[in-house]
Amino acid sequence: MTATDTGIARHAVRVRALSEGGGEGAGSGRLAHWAGESNRTAAVNVRLDAFHCTLAKVRAVTPLQREMLAGRAAVAADDQFARWIMHFANNRARHEATEVSVDWDSPAALPEGVRNAITHSFQRFELGEGGDGEHLLRKAARCSPAQQEALRLLVVEEQQHSELFARGLQHLGASTLPGHWSDRVFTRLRRILGLRTELALFLAAEAVAMPYFVVLSRSGPDDVIRAVGTRIALDEEHHLAFQIDQLRLGFAATPPAGRALVFAVWWCVAVGAGTVLAIDHRAALRACGLAPRSYWGSALRSFRRAAAAALG
Ligand SMILES: [Fe+2]
Ligand SMILES: [Fe+2]
């Protein structure tokens, strides 16, 4: 077992402890469960399901009752986002603990093909993770202060990911890219979407990227590359859980037929995103010992689990 594997195992224990203690959103427990970790989130999920059933009945009650239920829902959501704010705040210490053990200035002694493959991949991700989140936060202007703050902290972590990829590029002796047409198209698309749709798009993109980040953390070609993968994979696991928590609230009142339609459209987006990543990052995947076709299957399974959790 490498030092990175040991680090992941230690973090998994901490994540499980947080989930069991209710220290984070319900979605994080489900993700821990997908990773094969035991947890006690079933009771939390039952409570959440009951809460969603209550929301589904809202149309059948009087205006006064509806107002009371909406108030309870807002309190429950705020409580959930307050826990996420705490998670993001505590995550800074975890970041420092991971990063302090990495010799960022060590030279990358890698074969030319491997260096080029990881460089190409990191340059794409450095751009993709580097948005300022201005439009996302503007769309969230009508959300509660707790949700807005949680979203702001999420954006900060995404910007840190961009910096981590830039650090990885520096280690590889490569520079960042000034821009790329695919990133510009993705950014324009996000700007015309509503908040819930943009979060759904994020969930698809991050769920399909997760298997890549995990293989990077476990089988990246050197310590620095593995450290970048580890930092990002651990954060993204929580980002998925955070987005699932928000989307569960967003889709709470959507009837089953509507959810089926959402899933069908969402699935097409995920297949597209997974295929683009498998093709564009195929050399990096192979450098980490993962065949692009195997990655593709893992990516779609990852998305299916995330979408199922979000659509409840
Ligand atoms: Fe990220
Ligand atoms: Fe993320």
Task: Compose a concise summary of this entry.
This protein has 13 helices and no strands. The protein has 312 residues and is mostly helical. The chain has a single domain, classed as Ferritin, core subunit, four-helix bundle (Ferritin, Up-down Bundle).
Structure description:
This protein has helices spanning 3-20, 26-34, 42-56, 63-99, 112-128, 134-139, 145-171, 181-191, 195-219, 223-250, 256-280, 282-287, 292-311. It is mostly helical and 312 residues long. It has one domain (3-311): Ferritin. The longest helix has 37 residues, at 63-99. The radius of gyration is 20 Å and the shape is globular. It starts with a helix and ends with a helix. Mean pLDDT is 80; it is low at 1-61.
* Low-confidence spans: 1-61
Domains counted in the coordinates: how many? 1
Query: Roughly how much helix do the residues carry, as a percent range?
Result: over 70%
What hetero molecules are in the model?
fe (ii) ion
Give me the CATH architecture, please: Up-down Bundle
What series of H and E elements makes up the topology? HHHHHHHHHHHHH
Question: Sheet with the most strands?
Answer: none
Instruction: Categorize the overall geometry.
Output: globular
β-strand amount = under 5%
Quick check: average pLDDT? 80
CATH-defined topology? Ferritin
Topology:
Elements: H1 3-20, H2 26-34, H3 42-56, H4 63-99, H5 112-128, H6 134-139, H7 145-171, H8 181-191, H9 195-219, H10 223-250, H11 256-280, H12 282-287, H13 292-311
Helix pairs in contact: 1-2, 1-10, 2-10, 2-13, 4-7, 4-10, 5-7, 7-10, 9-10, 9-11, 9-13, 10-13, 11-13
This protein binds fe (ii) ion (2 copies).
One fe (ii) ion is lined by residues 158, 206, 236, 239.
